[in-house]
C-alpha cells in the first residue's frame, strides 16, 4: 500500500541548491549525505535533492506546494528574489504569474537548478 510521497529533484550544484532553498524558501536539510540533501516539511512530506549532471533538463512541474494564501506566499518569495514564470499557452494564461482554473490557482518558479516548482491554492 502506498503511504507517503517522497519527491526527488536533481541539482547540478548541490551547494547552490542548498543556498537557494535556505535563502528563498527558508528551508534547511534535516539530513545531508554524500551528494544528497533531505528535507522533511509539513506533516510527513519529504523531498530530496541529489547532485547530477542531468539537472535542469525537465520542462515540467517537478514539485508542488499547497498554500492557503497564494498571493501572500508569492509576495514573500518575491521579496527573497524568487521570479515567477509567465505562460500563455492553449488552456493556460498567467496574470501576474498566476494561472486560475475553476477550483485552483497556481504559480510556477524555477529553483537555481532549473527545476519547476508549483505553488497552488484551492479556491
Automatic annotation (TrEMBL):
Top-rank taxon: Bacteria
Residues in VOC domain copies: 3-122
Pfam families: Glyoxalase (PF00903)
Matches recorded under PROSITE patterns: VOC
InterPro entries for the chain: Glyas_Bleomycin-R_OHBP_Dase (IPR029068), Glyas_Fos-R_dOase_dom (IPR004360), VOC_core (IPR037523)
Entry protein name: VOC family protein
Organism: Cryobacterium cheniae
